[in-house]
Amino acid sequence: MHGSKHEDDGHSTPEPDPRSKAFPRVILSLAIVGLMVGMMIGRLTTPEERVLEQVQVVQDGLDLWFNEEPRLHGENVQGTVAIVFEAQGKTQRGQLTLQDKPVGWRLQKSEAGLVLTVVAARPLRGEWNATEEAGRWRVQVRLHE
User: Where is this region: Disordered (predicted)?
Assistant: First the structure.
């Protein structure tokens, strides 16, 4: 075992690696670039979240402003009005007057989105519709006894 030259595999010197030392770096770089491009495409194709921006108390009801058209489902249940919005927003509560009598409303988060509940000491009925105004969506909730 004099020296390190190859002689019929009779010594402990390893064979030279025929691959380039830059090969692992190239593969890692391609993987990182692919991941970044995939994340950018995913970000561009993801729809914008529906967000409740504002709640306004108006005569005989509420106006709820959203950034996108909200999906909603509402019912008049035993004298109360309940509407579920598939949107994000913060919990809120307040009061309004309907024919000089107080009416309480509460907006709270649930698994389905936001739930608007309107309650009074007497049975209520509600009607709602959504319209687009200046790039925003307004859901008008009108109440009557």
Answer: 1-21
